[in-house]
Model the fold of this input.
Amino acid sequence: MRLLVTGGAGFIGANFVQQTVTERPEVTVTVLDALTYAGNRSSLDPVADRIDFVHGDIADLDLVDELVSGVDAVVHFAAESHNDNSLTEPWPFVQTNIVGTYSLLQAVRRHEVRYHHVSTDEVYGDLAAGDPAFTERTPYNPSSPYSATKASGDMLVRAWVRSFGIRATLSNCSNNYGPYQHVEKFIPRQITNLIDGVRPRLYGGGQQIRDWIHVDDHNRAVWDVLERGRIGQTYLIGADGELGNRTVVELLLAEFGRAPDDFDFVTDRAGHDQRYAIDASTLRDELGWRPRYADFRTGLAATVAWYRANESWWRPVKAATERAYAEAGERTI
Ligand code: NAD
Ligand code: TDX
Done:
């Protein structure tokens, strides 16, 4: 199988490429990535000699058409992915997450290529305590510019399935953690702060809840859907990993031998979603998927170890990332 992977230099895409090349030597991988601030070519170093890398934009219609004409399937990870950035400057989110998705859809339509679309549980909005978890039937209700543009991309995919008969599947996953995640995101930000002796920073009161899944488990599910998913179907991916943000910070503080209250509360995120939770029954029952990282604490400890051992990967962008948070108005409260 010849595969085009968009966003393969990002957190989840790089993990997918590494996993694929290692475990499926029969698959030929081409990565298309614009190497934005979030892309890091060195995340592909372990497999660099076994893939083709194309530096380009998914919204470049001609480039995408040419690349898609030469493959059997596309797995689309590329996105602007950070909620906080979407509040500061929404335009790149519209361009990449909507226009970029359109460009891929037109190419897979023209060349009749199988397409898998990677999306997020945030398209469903948020839940209150006690609400049932999201299912494939939950109505879309996105809150942030990021999640609204992801929801828009998903809607385009559904329309291209129905109107043009493209062979597409979608997956909407909960919060990922693991190696190679950009230090702007919650868990790597706090790990790298702690390595630097800086107190973790919790938005608002730290009461928000996220449903954590290890990135390896997400990508195994993506493969299951790509190989055995029903065309036109959406699969929710989650590993029953609901935890409050404050609890995550306390677990990290324990990993570093620090007191459980050794953190700061900082300015809350505008429109901050309260809780996400995934019901992954369809994926489990239909495709037999099970997470391998059933214990979040074990996965978190391995992630801390990775950031300790790979300072050269994250150090070059740490200071600028913290400066951007300060410039966006983040203050201790
Ligand atoms: P990321 O920000 O780490 O990586 C995104 C990658 O896309 C980068 O390599 C970047 O250079 C590339 N990219 C951005 N714009 C591009 C463009 N116009 N053309 C080509 N490449 C471009 O993101 P991530 O966390 O790895 O997320 C990957 C996908 O998974 C996204 O679609 C995201 O919405 C989805 N997702 C993420 C999570 C999560 O917890 N991180 C959860 C569910 C779904
Ligand atoms: O410093 C922080 N302090 C803090 O309390 C940061 C960066 C975040 N937070 C909070 C905000 C969220 O409640 O932690 C939680 C997680 O924040 P993020 O890592 O920014 O993730 P989230 O906004 O939940 O979105 C993530 O999961 C869904 C990914 O970034 C998205 O790409 C994915 O779609």
